[in-house]
Fold this sequence. Notes:
The complex is a heterodimer of chains A (119) and B (741).
Chain A: E1 9-16, E2 19-28, H1 33-41, E3 48-52, E4 56-59, H2 61-73, E5 79-83, H3 89-98, E6 106-107, H4 110-118
Parallel strand pairs in A: 2-3, 2-4, 3-5, 5-6
Antiparallel strand pairs in A: 1-2
Chain B: H1 3-18, E1 26-27, E2 32-37, E3 42-47, H2 50-54, H3 58-61, H4 66-69, H5 71-83, E4 87-91, E5 98-106, E6 109-116, H6 126-143, H7 147-162, E7 166-172, E8 178-185, E9 196-197, H8 204-210, E10 215-218, E11 226-229, H9 252-261, E12 265-273, E13 276-285, H10 294-317, H11 320-339, H12 343-349, E14 362-367, E15 370-375, H13 380-394, E16 399-401, H14 404-407, H15 415-418, E17 420-425, E18 434-439, E19 444-449, E20 456-459, E21 466-469, E22 475-480, H16 489-524, E23 534-541, E24 550-556, E25 562-569, H17 573-593, H18 597-611, E26 617-625, E27 630-636, E28 641-645, E29 648-652, E30 670-674, E31 680-684, H19 686-689, H20 696-709, H21 715-725, E32 733-740
Antiparallel strand pairs in B: 1-11, 2-3, 2-6, 3-11, 4-5, 5-6, 7-8, 7-13, 8-9, 10-12, 12-13, 14-15, 14-18, 16-17, 17-18, 19-22, 20-21, 23-32, 24-25, 25-26, 26-27, 27-30, 28-29, 28-31, 31-32
Helix pairs in contact in B: 6-7, 6-10, 7-10, 11-12, 11-16, 16-17, 17-18, 20-21
Amino acid sequence: VLEGEEVVFFLEHDRHDDHLVIRVTGELDVATAPELHAAVVACGDVPLVVVDLSPCTFVDSTGCRVLVVSAREVPGPARVVVVCPEANQDVYRILDFVQLSTALKIYDRPDDALADARG
Amino acid sequence: VTDAFAEQLARALRACADEPISTPGAVQPHGALLALAGPGDRVAVASLNTGELLGVPADALLGRPLAEVWPALGTALADADAEDDPHRRVTLEQGGPPFDLVTHRTGGLRVVELEPLAGAVEPALPADLWSRTVPAAVQRLHDARTLPELAAAIARAVRAMTGFDRVMVYRFDRDWNGEVIAEERRDDLEPFLGLHYPASDIPAQARALYTRQWSRLIPTSDYRPVPLLPDRDPLTGAPLDLSDAALRSVSPVHLQYLRNMGVVASMSVSLVDRGVLWGLISCHHYAGAFRPSHPVRAAAEFLGRTASTLLASRQEEGRYEQRLHTQHVLAGLGAAVGTAREPGEALLDGPTTSAALVGCTGVVVRVGGRLRTAGAVPAGDRLDRLLAALAPRLADGPVVTDSVAALDPGLADLRDVAAGVLAVPLRGGATGDLLAWLRPEVLREVTWGGNPHEAKVVEGAGADVRLTPRHSFAQWSEVVRLTSQPWWPHEAEAAADLARAVSDALLQRVERDSRLAATLRTVLVDPLPPLPGLAVAARYLPSQEVVGGDWYDLVPLTDGRLAVVIGDVAGHGLAVSSVTAQLRHGLRAYLLQAEDAGEALGRLNAMVARLLPAELATAAVAVLDPATASAQVASAGHLPLLHLADGRAEWAGSHLGPALGLTPDARFRTLQLPLADGAGLLLFTDGLVERRGVSLDRRMDLLHDLVLGAGDSDPEGVCDAVLAGLPRGSDDATLLLVKRR
């Protein structure tokens, strides 16, 4: 919560063909990053975790870090990928400047990520 | 229940609460009361039974010095004053019947009460009372190791001493309901042990009187009150205050209550723990009148006072093992909190957790605004709602309740995880920091001595409506819902102790951190050195305290070149500052050795990947070369810099390489920018332009325009203009402007 504003942050979990999609709504920053980290590393036995930032309104450097770190710390064989449409400029621009794509695959839509996983 | 009835009941309850129980204007008939005024101790008030008991009618006493009427009483009062002992046994005249005299003062009056020994019950050997009976009883009270033993010893001793048919030790709960925790009775009487009595059986004003007057006696519950003459204090015109009078006439409601229970004579002695009414020694007699003599009552009161001093220690000793355990856990947690990187973590994740401190099924910890939970806690917004309900109450100190639903009926649905809560506020961290322990609902059966919901009955009609006590004392059981196991005082104390330890640790941390931070700051950002041919200005604005994850640096290289560095480690505050320091110094060393800025960033990236695997940072380097009037720019995921030349400002230097720590074998390209005299570079971190709710591009446009608008100002002026035009966000923000003269 910043300057008295009501800031909403929540995660939604969805299963698609054994894959886990975590939808991130709200602002991913130093305050909320631990929650996403916990959710990703607790994914269980799934081949793919898709972190969908489509409804995410803000990412800072801590938010970027948590994407990378949770992808590294995820147990078992799971792979972590990110969804962020270019239209979500507030988030996309940050991921782009940081060049997050050198570490994590970034898709436009969750379906693209899932289709890619199916091969 | 109709509205009219509810209104009547409310009026009757108010009338009961307003009943003038300390100024009834009458006394009980078993003694006579005189109030004396002035230096001559003239009789100012007399009870109307003086003629019957003392041989002189009240109206014949008024205005006369007491010592003139009964010289023996004058002497007794003088002795009482001299010995500072208000109790005397006197005869009014030589060879007359003995009276027990007791005296006290109220307002400007001296009150004298006289009870004839005739009709009183006294031990066969009165001298034994204080030389044998009382000392033996006191010994037994001291021998009791636990609270139940102490209560039993009290009941036994008081019954043996006074001869009442039944002596009960009554303990009040937080809501002033009473429970019989010990009892001695005539064998043929039905036991009352374990029964509960509703708070309304003893109204609040009566309880207030009980902490002041330690014992009360009613020899017969169907007495006729004896009025006082006059019925007012002649000095003040107010009704005479009989709060301390042994003969004070009691409320007719109370007498009816006793009669309904079949009680003829009743005596009670207060049990007071550290100034608060804790319980009563309640004595009943079923045939009478029954009146223990004044010395016997004084001895019983003495036992009550002695027992009162023992209550606290016996309650505690009864839970000695638990206390030991609590202290052990507390010591462990206190040490862990003092040394932990994060106190909240130490409280829940350490080898000893706060869940072990107080018996509970769930724990909620908020330290530094960060919420952590363990065990069973309400889900999501229900937990928020609970915390919101606690917040205003925590401003006044701990919240200890075994019924959250009583606190806020809207929280009744939390019964399975949080029917009861013990919460303590924390200081030294963020607003709203707290420790809270939760307990689920436990259904408890309570057996009352009569239905507590019908404890008082309204009688009469209209303006005459009044309360009358219940008639039924048949046992009545009910199941108590929406409550948890109660929290023991030692548990609340342990919680408060832990909160104190955590608060101390937080405060010490603030102090330690600010000292450490002041030192670290000089490591992260040196004062700018004078640089020939350059004008430089910098602003370093960490979000917390004095250091953060940002850094900047100026590194002189060979051939007059200068590396200008800016960087940003993800995260805030002291914890991240040590990482920042490592990166800053690592990059310095690599810049001195590497062929170009891109290679230096490559080595720094390898260092982060190998040695700081959980970190992410961005950095930009511009190597200024006066010989070629150019700058070589490299970037690791950093925002672009602003290239100032010929009255224009252009973004440059982004997408030259990924952030540090993203991938171990990243390559970093370099970009050559012309930098003639008067040209400059503005480097900054994302905290300057990132703002929730405002697009990054708009903020960057704004920055661009502010820099252009500052025109030919010197770098200090440009920095000021930029900061004035871009309100701070919540992140660290750093700004560095280098211009060739």
